[in-house]
Task: structure prediction
Amino acid sequence: MAMKKFINNPDNLVQELLEGFVLANQDKVALEGSNLVVRVNPKPKDKVALVTLGGSGHEPALSGFVGEGMLDISVPGEIFAAPGPPRVVEALKAVARDAGVLFIVLNHAGDVMSANMAVDMAQKEGVTLAKVLTCEDISGDPEDRRGLVGCLLVIKAAGAAAEAGKSLEECAAIAQRMADNMRTLAVAVSGATHPSTGDVIAEIPDEVMVVGMGQHGEAGGGTQQLKTADETAEIMLDALLNDLNVQSGEEIAVLLNGVGATTLMELYLVLRRVKQLLEAKGIGLAHSLVGEYLTVQEMGGFQMCIARVDDELKALLKAPCNSPALTVK
Result:
């Protein structure tokens, strides 16, 4: 696959993309310190702050989740690479407060290693914090599940709780409850390239789809013949409902995340079928989100995330927020 991208010097890619990102969203975010993406209107110190970290190249994630009712700071790394612990500590110290800091981390080896080191360093400097790990991908290693787009639901719920003035213990409990009650499965129909090097991330033959691919081309699940939107929706939803053990009479939120090259048209077809399938099973669709939230460059496919919700989580998901990637009024 030949790489065709409008970039400049690859060495400057992350710096330049961050400058453009904040320029496009200057009413919501700004760059401070060592390229930390921060809210332009910081919340009061008596409310819990939210921080995350993660590699660049997945735009709008994760910095697109910074804003009112969402994250206070995102620490972007290089392309598909976690930032080093010193910059994460800088972020945690920047929002340190008596109310505490909730640190949300996606389960990927580099992110977890950097996060754990940063937590140790920040706590030694007196930062009060709680960490929640998102690990909802049902494919791959069942003992070490990857964190995918479900992080958005965790950030949304916990961010709304923090905005409402809940304590660090309460915000962490809400984030953990959402994390425990969500599952994600990805399907890919075409691969992507690394935007800095041109290296191929994944190659997928024509007329084939891979169910269970990670967001960096990691293996999981298996290949099968390309199916229709309805057939693919059923394969993925059944697997997710079974893994989460969702029963008739319960309600779930559904998040469909295009990973780069899949159109909204296709995602809307999938959501339509998801609703039909849920109705047939007696399961309520409490909330839905469709769009590109965490991408993998030009990869074709999408991630389906479902989350069992109660009245509190439903209200938090629907609470107002104002971030580059998600706005609720």
Q: What stands out?
A: The first strand starts at residue 29 and ends at 32. Residues 182-320 form a domain with the Hypothetical Protein Tm841; Chain: A;domain 3 fold (CATH 3.30.1180.20). The radius of gyration is 19 Å. The chain has two domains: 10-180, 182-320.
